[in-house]
User: Which sequence fits this backbone?
């Protein structure tokens, strides 16, 4: 019978994961990459502890949020997390009216300026 250990929680979002916690995360997932490929991480291969829910998307730096991922796969997952955060930001900003969509002026009927055929811009 093994004794239960308290869950490790990082003191800050930038806290490095200690080696003992890395080992526990690795063993908890049977040494398999958790990016979706399910491949076993072999001896000598480099892997990182990845946050299931990325910190930029509201995740926490704690043991239950960590998973082993090969370095090559970790880069792809990080790219996806950043894209998800960007999309969420754009949608929320648009919803609250913080950012208006970009548009060119001088072409609509309600714009204060108009372009002549010669290319000159004049007030309506």
Assistant:
């Amino acid at each position: 019978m093994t004794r239960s250990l308290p869950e490790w929680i990082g003191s800050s979002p930038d806290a490095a994961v200690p080696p003992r916690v890395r080992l526990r995360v690795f063993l908890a997932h049977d040494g398999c990459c958790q990016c979706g490929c399910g491949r076993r991480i072999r001896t000598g291969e480099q892997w990182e502890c990845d946050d299931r829910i990325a910190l930029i998307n509201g995740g926490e730096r704690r043991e239950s949020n960590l998973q082993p991922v090969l370095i090559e796969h970790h880069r792809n997952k990080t790219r996806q997390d950043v894209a998800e955060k960007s999309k969420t930001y754009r949608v929320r900003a648009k919803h609250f009216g913080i950012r208006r969509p970009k548009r060119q002026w001088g072409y609509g009927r309600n714009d204060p300026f108009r372009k002549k055929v010669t290319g000159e811009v004049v007030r309506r």
The mean pLDDT is 88.
